[in-house]
């Protein structure tokens, strides 16, 4: 869902790592000279490799970004879209004892900053030139990024499909870093950019598989004073094993609870566009895939 503006995040949400530390404070994107030629790079590297070694690299959980290099000034820039309060906070809510409703810190946003950290992208990922654009096209794209950033606000981790087959029904689309990169490429193509279509471009998506979802309601209709108490407590019980900061023992118990709920009881409560949905889960339940989505033609 698109919104008319981006609300200020609740002060309860505190970032473990600050969002966009080297971007300009107002997110401004420098104007390029119209006649400039700007190279566009596809940037990809494992998520959080600095934290978990190459573990996530083996699962091919990749983070995507776009790089730009001006031929006139030789300056270069990175643009990416990611969680304000880290992935876990965008995937599961906080169950705060003082609140009836599960509380989400799930904003995501675009970050634009000068410099491309070549080593970071190349060493365990990739940095590949995909197109050349004019300064004029870049400036138009920058304007669009501002709008996109102000209206598409909430991170969505999951892609929910009916089955793991190519033409399966998509119930819910994710809204994450790779979706942003795909929107940028699409916008550049609309503005006239020609992409190098010989490249194979794969992206990570985290899939859930389910039958047709049922809409359950929103904060007011489920958790409000006239809400459905049974459903409210079922949803909170579902999210409880996903809470942050668990000890190893708690975590192992939680894994069993998650297995019981998702695989044995075939239930997943998805929060999407400010509403809760019941997913009747189906085998293979969950998959992390690194699949091709071609560059625009
Ligand atoms: C998630 O949000 C909580 C509450 O704001 C915060 O303490 C935490 O640092 C955030 N990030 C992670 C990875 O838990
Ligand atoms: C996008 O929005 C975030 C959150 O308000 C802001 O910090 C960032 O600078 C914006 N990015 C761009 C490119 O405008
Ligand atoms: C970007 O600029 C930095 C700093 O000047 C330089 O180290 C790096 O190699 C450049 N990367 C690209 C892809 O142009
Ligand atoms: C690449 O992966 C290796 C092995 O996991 C790690 O030691 C190195 O720091 C990574 N490089 C970057 C730039 O993240
Ligand atoms: C998927 O749909 C496309 C276009 O409608 C079709 O060409 C293709 O054969 C389908 N693939 C499968 C596995 O059904
Ligand atoms: C919840 O849904 C009801 C009816 O569908 C709507 O009137 C209400 O504004 C929604 N509340 C919130 C907090 O989104
Ligand atoms: C409350 O929710 C449960 C589970 O979705 C449903 O079976 C029940 O009919 C609901 N109760 C009311 C009063 O709506
Ligand atoms: C990229 O995706 C294609 C098709 O989705 C797949 O056949 C190929 O193995 C993937 N490449 C890698 C490196 O995983």
From TrEMBL:
Transmembrane segments: none
Gene Ontology CC annotation, any one: lysosomal membrane
Keywords, comma-separated and alphabetical: Glycoprotein
Source organism of this protein record: Latimeria chalumnae
A biological-process GO annotation: lysosome organization
Protein name: Bis(monoacylglycero)phosphate synthase CLN5
Listed Pfam families: CLN5 (PF15014)
PANTHER family in UniProt: CEROID-LIPOFUSCINOSIS NEURONAL PROTEIN 5 (PTHR15380:SF2), CEROID-LIPOFUSCINOSIS, NEURONAL 5 (PTHR15380)
Superkingdom of origin organism: Eukaryota
Annotated function: Exhibits palmitoyl protein thioesterase (S-depalmitoylation) activity in vitro and most likely plays a role in protein S-depalmitoylation. Catalyzes the synthesis of bis(monoacylglycero)phosphate (BMP) via transacylation of 2 molecules of lysophosphatidylglycerol (LPG). BMP also known as lysobisphosphatidic acid plays a key role in the formation of intraluminal vesicles and in maintaining intracellular cholesterol homeostasis. Can use only LPG as the exclusive lysophospholipid acyl donor for base exchange and displays BMP synthase activity towards various LPGs (LPG 14:0, LPG 16:0, LPG 18:0, LPG 18:1) with a higher preference for longer chain lengths.
Reaction it catalyzes: 2 1-octadecanoyl-sn-glycero-3-phospho-(1'-sn-glycerol) = 1-octadecanoyl-sn-glycero-3-phospho-(3'-octadecanoyl-1'-sn-glycerol) + sn-glycero-3-phospho-(1'-sn-glycerol); 2 1-acyl-sn-glycero-3-phospho-(1'-sn-glycerol) = 1-acyl-sn-glycero-3-phospho-(3'-acyl-sn-1'-glycerol) + sn-glycero-3-phospho-(1'-sn-glycerol); 2 1-tetradecanoyl-sn-glycero-3-phospho-(1'-sn-glycerol) = 1-tetradecanoyl-sn-glycero-3-phospho-(3'-tetradecanoyl-1'-sn-glycerol) + sn-glycero-3-phospho-(1'-sn-glycerol); S-hexadecanoyl-L-cysteinyl-[protein] + H2O = L-cysteinyl-[protein] + hexadecanoate + H(+)
């Amino acid at each position: 869902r698109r919104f008319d503006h981006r609300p200020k995040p609740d002060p309860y949400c505190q970032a473990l790592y600050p969002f966009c530390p080297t971007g300009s404070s107002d997110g401004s994107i420098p104007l390029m000279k119209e006649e400039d030629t700007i190279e566009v790079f596809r940037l990809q590297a494992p998520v959080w490799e600095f934290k978990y070694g190459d573990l996530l690299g083996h699962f091919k959980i990749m983070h995507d970004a776009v790089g730009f290099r001006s031929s006139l000034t030789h300056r270069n820039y990175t643009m990416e879209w990611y969680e304000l309060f880290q992935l876990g906070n965008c995937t599961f809510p906080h169950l705060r004892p003082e609140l009836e409703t599960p509380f989400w810190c799930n904003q995501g946003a675009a970050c634009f900053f000068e410099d491309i950290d070549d080593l970071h992208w190349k060493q365990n990922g990739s940095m590949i030139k995909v197109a050349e654009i004019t300064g004029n096209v870049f400036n138009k794209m920058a304007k669009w990024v501002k709008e996109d950033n102000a209206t598409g606000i909430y991170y969505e981790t999951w892609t929910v499909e009916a089955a793991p087959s190519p033409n399966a029904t998509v119930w819910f689309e994710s809204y994450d870093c790779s979706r942003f990169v795909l929107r940028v490429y699409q916008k550049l193509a609309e503005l006239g950019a020609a992409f190098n279509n010989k490249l194979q471009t794969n992206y990570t998506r985290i899939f859930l598989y389910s039958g047709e979802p049922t809409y359950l309601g929103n904060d007011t209709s489920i958790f409000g004073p006239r809400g459905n108490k049974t459903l409210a407590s079922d949803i909170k019980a579902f999210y409880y094993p996903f809470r942050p900061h668990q000890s190893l023992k708690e975590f192992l118990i939680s894994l069993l609870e998650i297995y019981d709920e998702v695989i044995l009881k075939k239930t997943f409560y998805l929060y999407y566009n400010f509403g809760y949905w019941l997913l009747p889960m189906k085998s293979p339940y969950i998959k992390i895939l690194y699949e091709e989505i071609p560059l625009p033609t």
